[in-house]
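FAQ

Q: What does a record look like?
A: Structure on top, sequence underneath. For example:
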């Protein structure tokens, strides 16, 4: 069978996704009469899992899988911006999908070729396709032509097309005048295996850069301000890297556990801080924390939350935190600076320049790290998320809590979030076959 899934609730344009999905269903039906074609609306992760389960239970297989909807860097989005849902890499890897031997998957959504389509190809062993640019609705498949919103347009296509967001005013002009051709979907085969996706290849240079975590002045000062005012604090550092954060905290905490997926990072941490008897560093694989229930007072994720399996890891954090414990997140996100933010950005740039003058060795080491080809490869396999993904996710899980901006750059910024009482987490509980 050919399976077409579409969403309607996540963001604007929801009314057009079913029209685009049904256009494809009609074209597929005309091309290959006799093969079953299912076109189904899905608004949550749980609903999609049930679709796959029901197909498998019926003894059928999927020859083509199409998704129409919105997506983030890590794949399709479900729910709404008020409470967004997104499968994490681990959730996809543990999800059973009854694909046929020669199956293909196509993701008709923004930026799906940048990370998700190749990941999907590798995970499920099938040809997968996606768009590099943002998508738009068009009455023509070859180039942009506006769709009549009142239903007069018979066919609606969801196409990848450079426009204002990706190519500025000129891109918008070419798009609106029909001179910009639709992007051809990029195709990825299972044989295009990614390299090591952890920090293993850059561990030594990374450790040199962050031998003293206090060089991240904005992040360090914020963590100090939000550190719980309790004695004998027990701390978990998720994505601990070379262990420098816990080492700095060691004199004021009873116990600290640092976990990371990079074996080389853990080796560096264990070597450098072997004499810190109240610290422990362990490699993990997947969203599992090697701690007993209710065993820590504070969980920190410094510049690593973007790499985590968000919903599964949130459940683990809830398990290991004591009642009333909290989670502190500091991370980098991508978003272009807005006009109204320019004064703040120039102030932050000036502060960064002063910090650079104070710590020349740090910035020299940082330059070596970010110009290393292995660093670029690591980032390609672990893309930085957009600001709205963070804000919508964290603020929906902890109603009333707000993200803070610590530093603004031209195309990125540093966000921080204090969960408050973590037991108030609004979570999604799923059971995977």
């Amino acid at each position: 069978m050919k399976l077409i899934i579409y969403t309607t609730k996540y963001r604007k344009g929801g009314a057009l996704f079913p029209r685009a999905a049904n256009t494809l269903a009609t074209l597929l039906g005309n091309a290959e009469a006799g093969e079953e074609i299912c076109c189904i609306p899905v608004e949550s992760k749980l609903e999609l899992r049930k679709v796959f389960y029901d197909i498998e239970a019926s003894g059928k297989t999927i020859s083509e899988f199409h998704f129409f909807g919105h997506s983030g860097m890590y794949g399709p989005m479900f729910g709404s911006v008020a409470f967004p849902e997104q499968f994490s890499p681990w959730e996809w890897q543990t999800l059973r999908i009854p694909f046929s031997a020669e199956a293909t998957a196509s993701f008709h959504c923004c930026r799906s070729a940048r990370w998700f389509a190749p990941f999907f190809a590798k995970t499920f062993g099938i040809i997968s396709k996606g768009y590099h640019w943002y998508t738009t609705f068009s009455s023509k498949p070859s180039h942009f032509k506006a769709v009549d919103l009142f239903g007069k347009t018979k066919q609606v296509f969801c196409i990848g097309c450079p426009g204002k967001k990706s190519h500025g005013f000129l891109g918008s002009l070419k798009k609106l005048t029909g001179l910009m051709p639709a992007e051809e979907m990029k195709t990825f085969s299972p044989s295009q295996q990614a390299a090591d996706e952890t920090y293993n290849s850059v561990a030594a240079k990374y450790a040199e850069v962050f031998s003293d975590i206090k060089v991240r002045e904005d992040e360090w000062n914020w963590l100090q301000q939000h550190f719980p005012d309790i004695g004998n604090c027990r701390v978990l550092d998720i994505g601990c890297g070379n262990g420098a954060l816990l080492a700095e905290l060691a004199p004021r905490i009873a116990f600290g556990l640092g976990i990371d997926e990079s074996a080389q990072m853990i080796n560096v941490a264990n070597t450098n801080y072997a004499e810190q008897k109240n610290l422990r560093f362990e490699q993990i694989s997947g969203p599992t924390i090697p701690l007993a229930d209710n065993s820590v007072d504070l969980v920190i994720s410094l510049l690593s939350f973007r790499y985590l399996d968000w919903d599964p890891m949130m459940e683990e954090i809830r398990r290991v935190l004591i009642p009333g414990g909290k989670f502190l997140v500091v991370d980098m996100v991508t978003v272009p600076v807005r006009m109204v933010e320019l004064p703040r950005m120039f102030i932050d740039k000036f502060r960064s320049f002063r910090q650079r003058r104070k710590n020349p060795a740090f910035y020299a080491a940082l330059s070596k790290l970010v110009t290393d080809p292995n660093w670029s490869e690591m980032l390609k396999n672990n893309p930085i998320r957009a600001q709205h993904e963070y804000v919508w996710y964290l603020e929906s899980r902890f109603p009333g809590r707000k993200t803070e901006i610590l530093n603004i750059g031209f195309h990125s910024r540093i966000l921080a979030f204090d969960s408050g009482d973590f037991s108030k987490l609004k979570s999604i509980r799923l059971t995977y076959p």
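Q: Is there anything notable about this one?
A: The chain has a mean pLDDT of 92.
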